[in-house]
Every structure is written in structure tokens, then in C-alpha cells.
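Example 254, ligand LD2JLWAY.
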Amino acid sequence: MSTALSVNLNKIAVLRNSRGGGEPDVVRAGIACLDAGAHGLTVHPRPDARHIREDDVHALAALCRARAVEFNIEGNPFAPPRPGYPGLLALCDAARPAQVTLVPDGDGQLTSDHGFDFVRDGAALLPLVAAFKALGCRVSVFVDVGDPEVARAAACGADRVELYTGPYAEAFAAGDPESALAAAGETARRAQAAGLAVNAGHDLNQANLAGFLRRVPDVREVSIGHALIGEALYAGLEATVRGYRRIVDAAARD
Ligand SMILES: CC(=O)[C@@H](O)[C@H](O)COP(=O)(O)O
Ligand SMILES: NCC(=O)COP(=O)(O)O
């Protein structure tokens, strides 16, 4: 079984928004990721539009359609519309992503840090999941590793769950990933037994990914952004500085 890599472009938009203007360009970055072999692209437009904006969603949806690859939009289905953010359902209605990943983030969160509470939110999720599926989207829901109620995602109508891998990444960085890996494997198996496919994401990187995929069975997709964009900066920094040196050195010779 192979695992698809979906690159999350949020952090390209963070850089762009820090200056206004259009650089770095999220579509150009998306093209580079797809040219390098990414199987799809992910965005998590937040209601405060701190990074990915509505216009980015449409531009990237068009790119993914043209390249026949998966576009994955993440967001909180309960967050109400506001200026600059039409709401997740309206956004998906307009952009028609192949997959929507429902994430229960509050507005003020720095980043995603927990999955759904299915006992509390299950009844409210049921009609929402149906509404996204009526748009033709595969629906994945963000879940905590170790959630004993993970099978309830199937009763909500979801197709997949995305395991929240932040705690695993922390345990790996601390040199003690064993119990996080065992728990992730167990949660994946419980979800799969309920008929759900399994995605994973959050703070995955080139150091911790292989160990995760070795231990957690049949992970269909990983979505990776923060670390990948940081690693890309390091990987490209030397070549870029050399390029600038060539320019200033050539100008000095003229
Ligand atoms: C659901 C998930 O784990 C990622 O989408 C994460 O939320 C990235 O969002 P930010 O880039 O806003 O931190
Ligand atoms: N769903 C996880 C995601 O899209 C990327 O998370 P991160 O790599 O930015 O932590």
C-alpha cells in the first residue's frame, strides 16, 4: 500500500501576507510541489485569513483540476461565515475539492491541536458530513490518537479519519516515540475495522515520517506543510545565496 503526499501550502501564504503583494506565489509553489512528485495539495484557510485566502483556494483548485490531482481543503465546519471567509461548506461548494478534512479548531488557535469529540459533536457532524458528500467531496475528520470513540466517525458518515500526529512528533523529538506509535497504530486499526481509511498529519517531517509509516498500518495520505516548507528553505538557501553572489560578483566585473 502506498501513501499519498499532500503538500500543505499555508506557510507560503504566511510569507506572502507578511509583505502584501503576491510573492511568494502559492500557485507557483503548488506547481513546484506537483512537478516534484507531490500527489496533491492541501490548504487550511482560517476564518481570520491569516494565510490562505479565498482567492488562493480558487486558484489552487483550478491548478489541481488541471493537473488531475487531489485538492484537500481543511477547516472547521462549524465556523460561521464572515467577511473574507464564506464558511467551509460554501468554500467547498465553489471550489469542489476532492477531499475536505474537518478540523474542530477554535478561531484563536495558533494551529490545530486536537481532534473531534464524537460523543459531543457526532449528532451535529452527521448532516454536515452529508452536505460535503453531496458536493462530491470525500470527507475526512481530524481525530486524536487514542480516542476510544474513533469508530463513531463512521457513524457520522465520514470516509476517512486524519490522525493528529502533533503528540507523536513531540515524542519523537524527545527521543521516546514508542507509546505514541503504539497508540497511533491501535487507533488506525480501530478506525479501519469500522470501515474508515486513515490519513495522518501535523508536524510530520523528514526525520519522523518513515518511523510513523512503518508502525501505523495502511496510511492513505499524509499532509505536510510547516516542516516541509522550513526544510525547503534550508535545502534551497545555499543555492540561492550562490545565485545572488554570482549577480553581485558579475556586477563588480562590469
Ligand atoms: C489540520 C492540521 O494539522 C494542519 O492543517 C494544521 O492545522 C496547519 O494549519 P496552520 O498552518 O494554520 O498551522
Ligand atoms: N493536516 C496536516 C497538514 O495539512 C499540515 O500540518 P503541518 O505539517 O503544517 O503541521
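Summary: Residues 65 and 71 are 8 Å apart (CA to CA).
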